[in-house]
Design a protein that fits this description.
Bound molecules: beta-D-glucopyranose
Shape: globular
Helix content: 25-40%
Distance between the termini: 97 Å
CATH topology of the largest domain: TIM Barrel
CATH class of the largest domain: Alpha Beta
Strand order of the largest sheet: 11-16-15-14-12-13
Structural class: alpha/beta
Length: about 650
Amino acid sequence: MKKQSLLRISLFLFLFIFSACTPQALPSIPVQTEDTYAPLAPDGVPSAVGEDAFYKQADASIPERVEDLLSRMTLDEKIGQMTLVEKGSIEVADLPSLSIGGLLSGGGGAPVEGNNPEKWAAMVDGFQQSALESRLNIPLIYGVDAVHGHNNVVGAVIFPHNIGLGAANDPALMAEIGRATALEMAATGIYWNYAPGVMVPQDIRWGRIYEGYSENTELVSTLGAAYLQGLQSTDLFESNITIGTPKHFVGDGGTAWGTSTNSGYKLDQGVTEIDEVTLRAVHLPPYQSAIDAGARSIMISYSSWGGMKMHAQQYLITDVLKDEMGFTGFIVSDWEAIDQITGDYYQAVVTAINAGVDMNMVPYNYNRFIDTLTKAVDEGDVPISRIDDAVRRILTVKMEMGLFEQPFSQPELLAEVDSDAHRALAREAVAKSVVLLKNDNNLLPLDKDTPQIFIGGVAADDIGIQSGGWTIEWQGKKGAITPGTTILEGIENAVGAGTVIEYSKAGKFTGDTEAADAICLAIVGEPPYAEGKGDSKSLKLPSNELRILRNMEEGCPNLVVILISGRPLIVTDSIDSWDALVSAWLPGTEGAGVADVLFGDQPFSGTLSYTWPASVEQLPVGSSSEAPLFPFGFGMTGE
Ligand code: BGC
Ligand code: BGC
């Protein structure tokens, strides 16, 4: 080796060791002006940071840490933080190199390696590990729709969908469900939940009706806030806070039939044709309650208002939600929703970001989004102050969540997934959610020693049907998709040793259904659906379900009908043939909760959180002067 190069190497080594040993003072925070955004080392390359960087000091104040971190970031890194990618679309090497801010699993977004809690944790931790290798080591925020429990995960406890929880109307129960969900999520390394849905749906033909607690604003406000407080509890685990995402801002539940901008959909992603006074009175209050309860992220709606997509509404997002209502967290867009503002992608991105969207759920082509937003900043169409505001909000929440200190899953919580305590909680929620609508001759509750029970219907013995959409798959799926207790199993476990149960999917029995001591239970309902795919014009039971009912109506003098559905259905023509009618909504995995009320172990206490119309002509709610089949708040006690 030449003398010269030896010298160079030793000089380099000396400088390296010297710099490593020098006690470093806290970095001075560079002065930030409106148009300087990329503090660079003299050679133009941003330098790496050490573990002692100010923003990494857990005990320093969050606003100061955020300013320190922001001052070190290049424009590319800032835009990376504003980017939310569907996990199957990410090139893992891009996580650190682009400083991607967030990943999500959409409905059904399980690990490719298999679907169980351990594999989820390994997947999310793996992504996190890669993201942390970025220059500034900023942790990812990983999101999921845990809308009724950690519902994409096989083995997680599935709680009733919100329509049932609206009927239960129990804020303390909501807080418990929020806590349980956060624990199951943290076990898999996920601390960001796209829930609660705080829509105030006015038309039950909507395919998302079951995601909403009620048509009543106050009920939605109370239950949504209670759930959020439970989910975001600070005492759940030492290191982290799980955050919720009230959605979809605002007026998603007020769209008019036939206005959807999505072909094939009718109400979903449609137009909310109401004035501002009504929008504020009916749809806005749950967001104020959620903000007061500590909401740190809010998702924008696919729907439109006042001739404009919600994602383009600077007035509502920035002036109303952030400035007037005091929302200091960050705004996330819905799935590919910015693209819907206009066909011109550049214009769509400029409009949405300037309107106040802070993080874009891209979710697929993130390079296109990053390039587009970079160009928009370069051209001066999106001011750097807007970018800084968005990134400041995102980083603040990430720090509040403890992600900088503890970005990974919590293996010691794996036992919480599927725990007896969570199953018991879900079973209690089911029992409280069931609504007794008709009960001739006080047929219900049933005697546990009823000699013969004839149970008909596919839905009686199907975890997938009783769980509905957003369960393991986006659209849900029939069959034994995750462990749980079907309603049939719940009944079998409840009855006395002497009771004979005959089960027939078709409702055709060999035993004597007309015997004086026999009871028939028809358990029928809707197949699973989600979002606009569930928009329904007629709200009729599917024909195969009607056939089961017809079979049983004929031969059963004592017929109890149990509906498994995401909403009230039109049953006006049939109800006279039934002796009792029970609505169990979409109870989830703990079907035993239905048996608890059928056999009197728990009282019937659920009440309708939506008006039950006599016909679809009475929709949306309040548009008809004719009496509904059952009014809002109706529910018998069985006593
Ligand atoms: C839904 C949101 C959901 C998101 C991510 C969208 O299609 O509208 O409610 O949070 O997908 O799965
Ligand atoms: C995803 C959902 C998402 C939907 C949007 C699906 O492919 O799994 O999470 O809400 O697309 O349309």
